[in-house]
Amino acid sequence: MSNVDNIAIRQTWVEEQTERYAKELKETEDDAFLYFVAALLLGCSPEDVEPEDVVDGRQDKQIDFVHIEDDEDKSEAEITIIQAKNTRGFGSNVAIQIRNGLSWIFERSKQQFSKLDNESFKNKITELRQLRNEYGASNLTVRVFHATNGDSGDLSAEYREEANILREKYTNLGF
């Protein structure tokens, strides 16, 4: 079986799962796709994804989902951040937009982010900042995902370049 066939089979499966979860969760297909992706990454079922982790909406700065696993005993936390697009492609601008969203999470002043209309996003930023202050950046594991139903083998050179800039910036900060 060729890689093209394999990708097409996977894409069809993802589309079918998205349709299924849209019906089961009574969500739009775009929201069901986000729940499906989050469930895959967190190792749970879409029904178990916490609604408060979904920050998608007005002024989300291209961040759709923020999940925090806080291990108080070890003074460390694992953060999963997702930008999900229920499409078959990877737009190069999305990597730039994700970088902007991460800037809002980790760099913008409290005065700036407190003006956002998105209460869920503001709450997640506040929670992350508290953990960073309490545990230190080196005790935070931050995983950032851009999920689509596209073929990652088709990423443009510009997308790869922007993703590498993003990776380098945050790797060098101790995360």
Topology:
Blueprint: H1 3-25, H2 29-42, E1 65-71, E2 76-84, H3 92-106, H4 110-113, H5 119-135, E3 140-147, H6 157-171
Descriptive overview:
The protein has 175 residues and is of the alpha+beta class. It has 6 helices and 3 strands. The chain has helices spanning 3-25, 29-42, 92-106, 110-113, 119-135, 157-171, and strands spanning 65-71, 76-84, 140-147. It has a 3-stranded mixed β-sheet with strand order 1-2-3, sandwiched between helices. A hairpin with a 4-residue loop joins strand 1 and strand 2. The longest helix is centred in the first third of the chain and has 23 residues, at 3-25. It is globular, with a radius of gyration of 17 Å. The termini are far apart.
Strand order of the largest sheet: 1-2-3
- Per DSSP E runs of 2 or more residues, the count of β-strands stands at 3
Report helical residue fraction.
40-55%
SSE string, helix = H, strand = E? HHEEHHHEH
- Global morphology: globular
Distinct helical segment count: 6
What is the alpha-carbon Rg in Å? 17 Å
- Strand proportion: 5-15%
Mean pLDDT over the residues: 91
Q: Class by helix and strand content?
A: alpha+beta
Oligomer: single chain
Q: Between the first and last Cα atoms, what is the distance in angstroms?
A: 39 Å
**Main β-sheet: number of strands, strand sense, barrel status?**
3 strands, mixed
Query: Unreliable segments (pLDDT under 50, ≥5 consecutive)?
Result: none
